[in-house]
Design a protein that fits this description.
The protein is built from 18 helices and 13 strands. The protein is α/β, with parallel strands linked by helices and about 375 residues long. Helix 6 links the parallel strand 6 and strand 7.
Length: about 375
């Protein structure tokens, strides 16, 4: 059996690795190839291109890289048309993956998409294209599945793999993480997560360091930890003056975002999957995001939801503060962090709300996704195309 998969960023790589494990539990000899990162490759995945080649965020940024992305798109189409997989699974990166899926469907190849694009939030006109490209949508969140059913698109809600991996109670993990990083249990620790993409770090990295400086001025005992998602981002962030890191009591990590989040009392985080991980670890957070000004100008005219962070979207209310674009200033972010540190009762309340959301998402997601794919496409241990 052959399954083609394309994951376009680090979070998709993690989802893809778990999915491959669940697929192999059903068919140990399954061949999986396409585009993925280190986690998928470690599961025996063959990646035709480096993951970073597809990890491009923002309308303006995509335009700049369009010729290269187009060449990759058609190279993958030609490869799989000549040697068809039993099913193609796009993981996130909807602008690329749904276009590729549509091209493959024209040649009779079955397609699934894992992780819904935010069509419920903006650019709803994409629904018609999704229906044409996708035989099955696998969603991580329950409100997404409800949306697709309303529009007649085959869908299965599978839950989120992170909700399965993170224990419901995490207090002991926090103590261990603080100790591992050299912090005391009583010391207030703030995790700074500027994002996993180079463009995100360039937009937010300096802002978060200045936020830490402002917090330090008002809370002398505060310490900070900043996990760089990739070696390239670590090198970029480490170019800052090391004396600044020392003055801030800042620990710069290479990877280890889970350790940084577990150790934190409060998290300042770029909007994205990291907000979900912070929520599952029951961490009060402040969400920040900045885009290229033109990208943001365009997005504001297309977005139809009130929130951008996953905790707020799941709860459909403003559980955590969000500061976007010009509002994402060191002054706003530092005051929001200090508010969490100074109001333990509010922290206790938000942890209970996060626990409830965690329980909703805990569905054994990778197993559910693999089962849905095998059932929907009637895949057996040996496929018709590849006996």
């Amino acid at each position: 059996m052959k399954i083609a998969i394309v994951a376009g960023e680090l979070s998709g790589d993690a989802l893809g690795a778990e999915l491959i494990t669940a697929l192999r539990a059903r068919c140990p000899d399954v061949q999986v190839s396409g585009i993925g990162g280190e986690a998928m490759i470690a599961q025996g995945f063959e990646s035709f291109y480096p993951l970073r080649d597809l990890s491009v965020m923002g309308l303006v940024e995509v335009i700049r890289h369009y010729p290269r992305l187009r060449r990759m798109l058609y190279a993958l189409r030609d490869r799989w048309v000549n040697d068809p997989p039993d099913v193609f699974i796009g993981i996130d990166s909807p602008d690329f993956n749904l276009r590729l899926a549509r091209l493959l469907k024209l040649h009779g190849i079955s397609t699934a998409h894992y992780v819904s694009p935010s069509v419920w939030a903006w650019r709803r006109y994409r629904l018609r294209g999704i229906a044409q490209a996708c035989d099955l949508m696998l969603t991580l969140f329950p409100f997404e599945a409800h949306f697709y059913r309303q529009h007649g698109i085959p869908v299965v809600y599978v839950g989120h793999p992170l909700a399965d991996q993170v224990p419901l109670q995490v207090d002991a993990e926090m103590k261990h993480a603080k100790s591992a990083l050299g912090f005391t249990t009583e010391q207030p620790v703030v995790a700074l997560l500027p994002g996993s993409r180079l463009s995100e770090v360039k937009q937010l990295g300096r802002v978060l360091l200045e936020t830490a400086e402002e917090i330090k001025r008002q809370c002398k005992t505060a310490a900070f930890v900043l996990p760089a998602a990739t070696p390239e981002l670590h090198d970029l962030l480490s170019q800052n003056d090391s004396t600044q890191f020392n003055a801030l009591s800042l620990t710069l990590l290479q990877g280890q975002s889970r350790l940084a989040l577990a150790a934190a009392d409060v998290v300042v985080v770029a909007s994205g999957t990291a907000t979900l991980e912070a929520m599952l670890l029951k961490k009060p957070m402040v969400v920040a995001y900045r885009l290229h000004p033109l990208t943001y100008w365009l997005a504001r005219r297309l977005v139809s939801v009130d929130w951008v962070s996953l905790p707020n979207l799941l709860a459909n209310t403003g559980l955590v503060p969000e500061y976007l674009q010009d509002q994402a200033t060191p002054q706003h972010l530092s005051q929001a962090v200090l508010h969490w540190l100074q109001h333990p009762q509010r922290v206790a309340e938000i942890k209970q709300q996060f626990l409830y959301l965690h329980q909703q998402l805990r569905q054994n997601a990778s197993e559910q996704a693999a089962t849905a794919i095998f059932n929907h496409f009637k895949l057996g241990k040996f496929s018709a195309k590849h006996p």
